[in-house]
């Protein structure tokens, strides 16, 4: 028995969206793939997710059109990773707004810090999801960097369809 209803044919676009994006793992996987971590082992390690759960989610996300499989060479052996489609890249404003909401409305752990979303074209932090709050340019993943103090570094986002790992 399914855990929830199938909303894929519902008239409400919010329900149809939740039919695809309603599982929290989906947005976390999209976040990581947009940051160039599209290899299975990288996703599993970074997310702390079991192989079985990750495998099911990735297959469902490919079927839903959020991810595509991308071949890469791993020591003379061809393997498959995952890259974002345009549909997944269009979730960037949603992810940014979730991050901003989380900073405003949840308690930050003691070891945390403000996650700055930097528009690389103008070099300024943006507080909007679709256009840069500084220069007004439309935001796309390949022109964004997220500065995460708890990681002591930056995550540059990658274009849709690109596996960002070396």
From TrEMBL:
InterPro entries: ArsR-like_HTH, HTH_HxlR, WH-like_DNA-bd_sf, WH_DNA-bd_sf. SUPFAM superfamilies: Winged helix' DNA-binding domain (SSF46785). The keyword RNA-binding does not apply. CDD domains: HTH_ARSR. It holds the Pfam family HxlR. Residues 12-110 form the HTH hxlR-type domain. It comes from the Bacteria. This is Helix-turn-helix domain-containing protein. The lineage of its organism: Bacteria, Bacillati, Actinomycetota, Actinomycetes, Streptosporangiales.
């Amino acid at each position: 028995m399914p855990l929830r209803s199938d909303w894929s044919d519902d008239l409400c676009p919010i329900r149809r969206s939740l039919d695809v994006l309603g599982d929290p793992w989906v947005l976390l996987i999209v976040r990581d793939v947009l940051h160039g971590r599209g290899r299975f082992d990288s996703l599993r390690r970074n997310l702390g997710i079991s192989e079985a759960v990750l495998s099911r989610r990735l297959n469902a996300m490919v079927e839903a059109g959020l991810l595509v499989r991308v071949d890469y060479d791993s020591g003379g052996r061809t393997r498959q990773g995952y890259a974002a489609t345009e549909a997944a890249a269009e979730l960037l404003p949603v992810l940014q707004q979730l991050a901003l909401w989380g900073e405003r409305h949840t308690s930050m752990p003691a070891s945390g810090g403000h996650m700055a979303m930097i528009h690389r074209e103008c070099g300024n932090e943006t507080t909007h999801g679709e256009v840069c709050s500084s220069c007004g340019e439309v935001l796309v993943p390949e022109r964004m960097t997220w500065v995460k103090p708890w990681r002591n570094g930056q995550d540059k986002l990658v274009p849709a369809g690109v596996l960002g790992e070396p």
